[in-house]
Amino acid sequence: MNLSLFDACLRQYQAVLANDEVNQLRGVQYVYALRGALFAVPVSVLTESEDRCGEYGRALRKWWDAAYVTFYAYLPDLALSTAHSTARYARASKEASASSGRRTAEVFRVGFLVALLCVSLLIHLPLAAYNLLELLLLGKVGVALALLSFNCANYYLEWTRWGLPASVVVVAVGLTSCIWRMGEADGPLKELTPSALLLQAMEGMRTRAEQRQTTELESLRQLQADVLDDL
User: Fold this and answer.
1) How confident is the model at residue 202 (pLDDT cuts 50, 70, 90)?
2) By the 8 A CB rule, do 37 and 13 touch?
3) What average pLDDT does this structure show over 95-108?
4) What is the DSSP letter of 139?
5) Whole-angstrom Cα distance, residue 132 to residue 68?
6) Based on the structure, what is the number of domains in the chain?
7) Do residues 102 and 182 lie in contact, with contact meaning Cβ atoms separated by under 8 Å?
8) Nearest Cα to 60, choosing from 70, 45, 75?
């Protein structure tokens, strides 16, 4: 660019700096306007001087047009769009990771509840069997008499060598049943029964599923709103 074109550009730059509309801008808008003028002024000067400068002026104007489109129009929009897309992908990845974490935690929680239910069944099935035996033999006295009669008969007839150990197990289960009944009167042990555990597990799973669905729908709406804002 020769000195006359440089002088014309300098005068137009000064006019831009003295423009009232430009001076009313603040912050990023002011910087963006000056940045646009950096490319627009040479294009304007070269357009006005096209007849005088000839092919040299037209070639130079095309170079400045390309610089204007590339560095003022295209690259900033590309950078802004890329930043928005990256932010959306990061937010979506974060939400997906959180959702996967919640579902993984739910799998472990269900596994723990299944194990707890198995332990509860392991405890309550012998208690239920003893309670049924006690019901059939008309109470604890009937159970004691039945065990005594069985062991006496087994001692003389030698039916099995497991008679005494089996009687000890029945007595132990009976004592546990009595203690458990006293604890159930206070309330906390009732929450450890298989039925109570199953109801609690189903209610907890339903509540957490509703919470997950609500959270995921809110995240999806937020991501859709971000996409619409960018459009």
Assistant:
1) confident
2) yes
3) 83
4) S
5) 92
6) 1
7) no
8) 45
pLDDT tens figures, 156-201: 777 777 777 878 888 888 888 887 777 665 556 667 777 778 888 8
Q: What is the pTM of this model?
A: 0.52
Each residue of 40-55: pLDDT tens digit? 777 777 666 666 666 6
Asked, for residue 116, whether it belongs to a domain, the answer is yes
pLDDT > 60? residue 1: no
Round to whole Å and give the CA distance between 187 and 74.
71
In a domain, 97, yes or no: yes
Q: Which amino acid is at 12?
A: Q
With b meaning 16 or more CB within 10 Å and e meaning fewer, what string describes 180-201? beeeeeeeeeeebbbeebeeeb
Would residue 3 count as lying in a domain? Answer: no
**Which is it for the CA torsion 229, 30, 14, 70, positive or negative?**
negative
- Neighbour-count burial for 49-62, b at 16+ CB within 10 Å, e otherwise: beeebeeebeebbe
First to last CA, the chain: 40
In a domain, 73, yes or no: no
- Does 7 score more than 70 pLDDT? no
* The pLDDT value given to residue 186: 56
Domain range spanning residue 221? 88-230
Give the DSSP letter string of 73-134: IIHHHHHHHHHHHHHHHHHHHHHHHHHHHHHHHHHHHHHHHHHHHHHHHHHHHHHHHHHHHH
